[in-house]
Amino acid sequence: MTALPDIPRLYTALAEWLACLLYVLALRRRWGTAVTAAVSGAVLAALGAFLQLTGSVPLAWWIPCMAAAVAGMYLYLFGCCAITARDAGYCCARAFILAEFAASLEWQLHCLLWPRRSGWEPPALALLVAVYGVVFGFVYAFEFRRLGRYPDLGVTRRALASAVVLASTAFAVSNLAFAQNGQATFNVFYIRTLVDLAGVLVISIQQEQITEARLHRELESMDNVLHRQYEQYQQSRESIRLINRHCHDLKLQIAAIRAEHDPGKQAAALDEMESGIRMYEAQNKTGNPVLDTLLTAKSLYCQQHDINFTCVADGHLLDFMPTGDICTIVGTALDNATESVQTLQDTEKRLIRIAIFAQHGFVMLRFENYCETPVHLDADGMPPHGYGVRTVKAAAEKYGGTVTVHSEDNWFILRVLLPHSGGKS
Q: In what residue span(s) does the Sensor histidine kinase NatK-like C-terminal domain sit (predicted)?
C-alpha cells in the first residue's frame, strides 16, 4: 500500500495550541488580556519549535517527546486559566485528544485531495484553515462557551483519571498501526481519525455528565437556601409574635403600676419605658407583614452582632409576591450581607443598607454591605460560588426582573429590578 507523508509537526503544534486556546478563551483567566496574549504567542512558538526539532527522533523517543508536549499544554492551561490543578489536568486531556482528532482529520483530507502536494502550498494552507476553523469553532460554539459560567469545573479525581485514561487509550490505539508499520497509509489515517473521534465523543459525554452533576449540586444548594429562608421566616414570625405579646404584657404592667403609685420620678421612668416600647413596635413597619418579619428578625440579629443595619422600604411594593419569593430575595440577600460583614474585625465597618422603592414603573430592591476587598465576578456577572445570588436571580427572573452585582468604593451592591405589576415574562 502506498506510503503517505505523516502530519507536519507544525500542524500538530497548531492543533494542540488551538485546543488549549479554547479553554483560555472560555474560562476565567489569571492575567489580563495583554499578558495572556503574550504568553499564548510564546507557547505557540515553543510548541512549534519543540515538535519541529523532535520530528525525526527515533521511535523510542517519540512517546517521551509527546509527553513533554502534553506537559507544555498543561502548564499553558494551568498558567493562563484561573482553575485548579485537577481541572487543568482534565482540560489538558480533552484538549490533547481534540487536537489529535483535528490534525488527523485535516491531514487525511489533504492526502485524499493532494497525496503528493506539500502542506505549505496555498491550497493546503487554505484547507488547514478551513478544517481547523470548523472543528475548533464548532466545539467552542456548542460546548466550550458554556464553561465560562463556572469558576469551578467540578472535576473529581475519578473524572480526571477517566479522562487521562481515555485520552491515553485513544492516542495509543490511533497510533498503534503507525508505530507497527513505521509509515502512514490511508488505512492508518482512517483508524487514527475514527479512534480520535471516538475519544472526543466519549470525553464529551463525560463532560456532559460532569456538567449535569454540577448543575444538580447547584440546584440542591439553591433548594437548601430556599428551605432555610422559609424556615427562618417561620421562626422569625413566631419570635415576633412572642415579643409583641410580651410587649403587650409589659404595657399592662406599667398601667397597673401607674395606677397604684404616682411618684414623679417613677412616672418619668415609666414614660420612658413606654416610649421605648412604642419605638420598638413602630420599627420595620413597611406595610408588608412578611417583609416586616424578615427585617425585624434581621435587625435583632444585627444588634446582637454589632452590625449597623439601615433600612428604608415600602413593603406595599412587594404585595404581589408570595411569601416564598420574598423570603428568597430579601432573606437570601440579607444573609449574604450579614455573613460578609461579620468577617470584618472593625465593628464600625460592619454596615448594611437596604432600600426598596419604586423607580420608573419598576420596583428596585437595593442591598449594600461594606467590604474591604473587591469581589471578582464570573462571566455571568455573579460572584464565584455565589449560589445565594444565583438563587435571588432565579427568583427575580420569574417576574421578568433582573439582578446586577458590582463593587464600588468598598461597597458590595446587589440590585434587584422587578416590574411594578409583578407580571411574569
A: 324-419
Q: Tell me the sheet residues that pair with 366.
A: 355, 415
Tens of pLDDT along the chain (425 residues) come to: 455 667 888 898 999 999 999 888 888 888 888 999 999 999 999 999 998 888 777 767 778 888 899 999 999 999 998 888 888 998 899 899 999 899 888 988 888 888 777 778 888 899 999 999 999 998 888 776 666 554 457 677 888 888 888 888 888 776 765 555 555 566 667 777 888 888 888 877 777 777 777 777 667 766 766 666 666 666 667 666 656 776 776 777 677 666 666 677 677 766 766 665 554 554 567 888 888 888 887 887 887 788 999 899 999 999 888 888 898 899 889 988 998 899 898 889 999 999 999 988 899 999 999 988 877 776 566 775 555 788 888 888 888 899 999 888 889 999 999 987 654 43
When computed from its CA atoms, the radius of gyration of the chain, rounded to whole angstroms, is: 32
**CATH classification number, 221-419, choose in 3.30.460.80, 3.30.9.10, 3.30.565.10, 3.50.30.10:** 3.30.565.10
DSSP strand E in 184-322: where? Answer: 308-313
Compute the distance between CA of residue 424 and CA of residue 322 in angstroms, rounded to an integer: 13
Chain centroid offset of residue 314 CA: 33
**Which residue has 432565579 as its cell numbers?**
394
In this structure, how many other beta carbons lie within 10 angstroms of the beta carbon of residue 402? 12
pTM over 0.70: no
Ranges of each domain in the chain: 9-214, 221-419
Give 107's contacts (C-beta < 8 A, 6+ positions apart): 6, 7, 8, 11, 119, 189
Residue type, position 423, single letter: G
CA distances from 165 to 66, 162, 207, 284 (A): 16, 5, 14, 60
